[in-house]
Amino acid sequence: MGAPLAVALGALHYLALFLQLGGATRPAGHAPWDNHISGHALFTETPHDMTARTGEDVEMACSFRGSGSPSYSLEIQWWYVRSHRDWTDKQAWASNQLKASQQEDAGKDATKISVVKVVGSNISHKLRLSRVKPTDEGTYECRVIDFSDGKARVSLCLLVPHPVPSRGPPSLTLPPSSHPLLGPRGVEW
């Protein structure tokens, strides 16, 4: 059962990447998804869905360029939104980036992980998770607050499959008294 589950999770991961890139959801003749919130504000680096093994370290990068002069503030917030097993709304598979005003607030099932603030027009932050485990699996969001322009967010799905136990040959341990060569008292010469 472990191998078919790993194959299914891998296929789901690649399907999600395909849908995020808009290959299956963008009607013919329409412009590609954009990452602008308004004017010239945009994400310059976005996190991508990933699969990690238990115990690995992962890094999620998010960078944003604001639209105003360098005299205003930007803020990046990293959120753990929910486990993908709890998803009922698959909108994130079609586009991992939507204006915050177009999405519902995360509500009770979201946890703020970190906040970085800068005065200027560019902000970047990498969220690092050390020694991930299956309970770290789920949706992570990079939310940007552009205090002169609005809010934007991008999200990714982190998959951490449960480790599949190795299936080596079974081992047999006999107590010394029942070992055919040793007899009840051990080796005699």
UniProtKB/TrEMBL annotation:
PROSITE patterns, A to Z: IG_LIKE
Signal peptide positions on this chain: 1-24
Biased composition (Low complexity): 169-189
Residues in Ig-like domain copies: 41-155
Any Pfam family the entry gives: V-set
Source organism, top-level taxon: Eukaryota
UniProt-listed InterPro entries: Ig-like_dom (IPR007110), Ig-like_dom_sf (IPR036179), Ig-like_fold (IPR013783), Ig_sub (IPR003599), Ig_V-set (IPR013106), IgSF_V-set/TM_domain (IPR051102)
Biological process per Gene Ontology, one example term: negative regulation of neuron apoptotic process
Keyword line: Disulfide bond, Immunoglobulin domain, Signal
Region (Disordered): 168-189
Keyword Disulfide bond (UniProt): yes
Gene Ontology CC terms, in alphabetical order: extracellular region; membrane
Record-given protein name: V-set and transmembrane domain-containing protein 2-like protein
Upper taxonomic lineage: Eukaryota, Metazoa, Chordata, Craniata, Vertebrata
